[in-house]
Amino acid sequence: MVSLSPVSNTGLLPFEEGIDMLDDPIADMIAARARAQQLDDPYADVCFLATVTSEGQPEVRAIALRDIEAQGIGLLINTNSPKWRQLEAAGQYTLQVFWATVQRQYRIQGQVALMEAERLQYYWSRKGYHSRLLEVYYEAVEPQSQALRSREALLDGMRALRAQYPDRDSIPLPASLVGVYLYPMTIDAWHGSPDDRLHDRRLFTRTEQGWRSSVLVP
Ligand SMILES: Cc1cc2nc3c(=O)[nH]c(=O)nc-3n(C[C@H](O)[C@H](O)[C@H](O)COP(=O)(O)O)c2cc1C
């Protein structure tokens, strides 16, 4: 586990030389994440998804980041959750990642596409017992983010599910769990340079000819 204690007055880890901004921001993200994983970045597999409610209230939450691929950023989302309802209704989001170990931030906006069933099944096959059980809870007992009368109510519900599904392989993939690809149309890529604060920041916009980029004031 990498230490998150500040080593400079910015509170960021030192800028790593030698990773230049690539012309393809998806390839840039994939390379940066692989490096962050090598460096045991605690956020290498986490992203932050912002959506907006029907009242215009922004909501943001941490989500497990699956794969980054040409078709988009893979996430699993339960369709009983507020985040799904917001994503579906507004069709708008901002996804953010920040990997301190490699001094990279990406802010992404774009479209949403459903993941193919085999890919969802693949991610399900990697989920542990408790994680699977919680997905079933969202579908069979109470939806995610629902207010409960007590924590005991949650524990009771889970006890019943554990009795019904004593082992991991007995838990079926609930229909309410979907995989999505967030397909970037714009990516604001930030390569940090904490010493002089002249971070290399580019806005990539997807066009029919490929990515167009402009340099932004950091
Ligand atoms: C590191 C981390 C990873 C998380 N990963 C997920 C996730 O993959 N899926 C999920 O539904 N919630 C995840 N959560 C919980 C969410 O941040 C949030 O509490 C929950 O999704 C709320 O759902 P809503 O925004 O739809 O109301 C994670 C939280 C943390 C701190």
Automatic annotation (TrEMBL):
<dbReference type="GO" id="GO:0008615">
    <property type="term" value="P:pyridoxine biosynthetic process"/>
</dbReference>
<dbReference type="Pfam" id="PF01243">
    <property type="entry name" value="PNPOx_N"/>
</dbReference>
<dbReference type="InterPro" id="IPR011576">
    <property type="entry name" value="Pyridox_Oxase_N"/>
</dbReference>
<protein>
    <recommendedName>
        <fullName>Pyridoxamine 5'-phosphate oxidase N-terminal domain-containing protein</fullName>
    </recommendedName>
</protein>
<keyword id="KW-0560">Oxidoreductase</keyword>
<dbReference type="GO" id="GO:0004733">
    <property type="term" value="F:pyridoxamine phosphate oxidase activity"/>
</dbReference>
<dbReference type="InterPro" id="IPR012349">
    <property type="entry name" value="Split_barrel_FMN-bd"/>
</dbReference>
<dbReference type="InterPro" id="IPR000659">
    <property type="entry name" value="Pyridox_Oxase"/>
</dbReference>
<keyword id="KW-0285">Flavoprotein</keyword>
<keyword id="KW-0288">FMN</keyword>
<feature type="domain" description="Pyridoxamine 5'-phosphate oxidase N-terminal">
    <location>
        <begin position="44"/>
        <end position="154"/>
    </location>
</feature>
<dbReference type="GO" id="GO:0010181">
    <property type="term" value="F:FMN binding"/>
</dbReference>
